[in-house]
């Protein structure tokens, strides 16, 4: 008999409520910090969020305006490419749909999230619309900690967590795809954890 029974394997792939994990992931209860650079200091008073949808289609929200938008409280599973997953995480924030509401997105099919500190990441527009992505400012009932992207981060839980840009400053909608920081450094352009799209060759 092998050292690992099928039962053991199954317990590693599911949490106590039977939720399955994407291939190659393990469960963690803590919240690791993964940043390509230092945490940028950001005051809420000088923070703003910008949506660039094309010439003449540009919206900016101050912190107060942003917090005045309709808020949602998603509970989602998150999956980091370094193989940890965290299930049933609770957030509060504004749906990207709310930011785009009434805006003419024209021929745009892609988006780049750009951040205080310079990080960028690209996502197809359809992956951040239709209730699939938020600009989150609260985690587990508390204001999002600076090392986790506070004041606010993008949350795109159905893709690997590097797509969830911390310290988000804006979203730029594009007609052509424009790979971001990790995507130009060998990570997969799309990053679906269920298809294990970790690196560009996956
Ligand atoms: N601005 C910015 N956002 C970022 C990163 C970064 O370095 N800078 N790292 C990404 C990566 S690789 C991961 S796994 C997650 C980590 O988020 P966490 O530190 O809150 O766990 O943030 C993503 N968002
Ligand atoms: Mo990551």
UniProtKB/TrEMBL annotation:
UniProt xrefs under Gene3D superfamilies: Oxidoreductase, molybdopterin-binding domain
InterPro entries: OxRdtase_Mopterin-bd_dom (IPR000572), OxRdtase_Mopterin-bd_sf (IPR036374)
Oxidoreductase molybdopterin-binding domain residues: 37-182
Region entry Disordered, spans: 1-25
Domain of life: Bacteria
Pfam families named in the record: Oxidored_molyb
Name of the molecule in the record: Sulfite oxidase-like oxidoreductase
Native source organism of the sequence: Actinomadura rugatobispora
